Amino acid sequence: MQTDSVLYDYVIVGAGPAGCLLANRLSLNPSHRVLLLEAGGQDNYAWIHVPVGYLYCIGNPRTDWCFKTEAEPGLNGRALNYPRGKVLGGCSSINGMIYMRGQSRDYDAWAAQGNKGWGWKDVLPVFKRSQSHYAGDSDLHGGQGEWRVEQQRLSWTLLDAFREAAAQTGIPSIPDFNGGDNEGCSYFQVNQRRGVRWNASKAFLRPVAQRPNLTVLTHAEVSRIEFENGRASAVLAKVGQQERRLSAKREIILCCGAICSPMLLQRSGIGPRPLLERLGIGVRHELPGVGANLQDHLQLRLIYKVSNGQTLNQMAGSLWGKMNMGLRYAINRSGPLAMAPSQLGAFARSGPEQATANLEYHVQPLSLERFGEPLHRFPAFTASVCDLRPQSRGTVEIRSALADAAPLIRPNYLSHETDLKVAADAIRLTRRIASAPALARFEPVEYLPGASLQTDEELRQAASSIGTTIFHPVGTCKMGQGRDAVVDERLRVHGVTGLRVVDASIMPTITSGNTCSPTVMIAEKAAQMIIEDAIVDDKGISAGTAPLAELAVEPLKGSASR
């Protein structure tokens, strides 16, 4: 094994949304040596950048870890594909590109659990700091950052009718989901730039890749963390075909996501004692919460056949239609190839007992049996609805100490009675929208799960049959205090020095919407805390202390997002 002679200040493991942003912010100080490690390769695969290309990135080992869940009892024993980005940009290179913050109550709940500084009023300025919103600076949005947010470059008559039908059902049309209360219906805003995917690599990494104090290694898979005198001191990684030991003077920061971050901790001897002892891994520090508290949004894909309207099923069903779509994208980056996987969104309450919206709809002018299969030959739309606040909790565990062993992922979907009730209520609400006057001219007919299913028991069984992940796993390295917490409010791993986790795994509870941009916010906030803590550790020895603090929050000059 080769031990690198370079002693880095920060070693960041994982170049997804969090890792790319941290590499940018921490390397702003030229005295910091920063190493960013990514298990995947460069984000130079053409399909990453064409928005519809997610179809060719998910399930592709070039860009996806290609994980699978265990057989899920709540899903009639089905095992699900569980995509996670394995490429520069991480999941932002293969996801649905939807810019969504969630609800103010999400973050206020984090703060109420003892996580000081994580309330809505605290995190809103952090969201704005990295944002490059198409409308510029405002009370709710930032225009000077790097994380580009634009309106979609398309419109569908069928989706407009669905939006009107939602309003007739009590779900108002609103212009923006990101003001703290997202109840309503609107077209999603997306992380695109002029019809091209805008991933975290483009936003945060490429503009600073030439900094002499920043090193980025791809195809670098970390097997475990090493410790010296109780401090996380190095990582062992296979870089290409070479085993290397890479050392950190200040901190090792895990940005591997809700699946890989707990796995790396467990392989390093940090986690539940019974699991580690069963696998013959020495217990470095017992933390029962590592890999627990897994939460995800389970989507129910309701499909309606329609008449008298155009859907993507027809457009993509002919050679001429495909040529036309390609031509539109080539000329002005518009049309179906510029589409995010979901175009229209709606947030609603499953029942009057809900204080705020607890359902999210992703509405699409297309349909298919399951992801990766061809579109149906008949015209149809899909109204996919998910429970934003699931009560079911799952786990992520390693199978062995070997880095190349696939994880045991058990989301435990629909294992809580409340989740089953919300699922049945969500199907009923969707049916009310589909039967509203605004959609009558399209004569919608329920194809999936089937209008004959009416009782609570039938609808619960239907949810088990059609439910699938919407790719939002979080929570497996929970932020907080107590026996089940893994990191504190500054994202430092409990009981270990020099080690943090900065990604979606730290969420105590899942946010009410898509999880990529909350992860960017988490990293932006973490960057400031990491630099502040470094100043404290140095006891203010640097004459450049004040400028360093300013660098932590200043948007990158000359960013490609401007």
TrEMBL record:
**PANTHER family with a match to the protein in the record:** CHOLINE DEHYDROGENASE, MITOCHONDRIAL (PTHR11552:SF147), GLUCOSE-METHANOL-CHOLINE GMC OXIDOREDUCTASE (PTHR11552)
Q: Which GO terms describe its molecular function?
A: flavin adenine dinucleotide binding; oxidoreductase activity, acting on CH-OH group of donors
**SUPFAM superfamilies on file:** FAD-linked reductases, C-terminal domain, FAD/NAD(P)-binding domain
Which top-level group of life is the source organism from?
A: Bacteria
Q: Which cofactor does it need?
A: FAD
Name the positions where FAD binds.
Answer: V87, V222
Q: Which organism is it from?
A: Pseudomonas abietaniphila
What are the Glucose-methanol-choline oxidoreductase N-terminal domain coordinates in residue numbering? 257-271
| Protein name (record) | Choline dehydrogenase
Record family assignment: Belongs to the GMC oxidoreductase family.
Q: Which PROSITE patterns match?
A: GMC_OXRED_2
Q: What keywords tag this UniProt record?
A: FAD, Flavoprotein, Oxidoreductase
Tell me one Pfam family matched here.
GMC_oxred_C
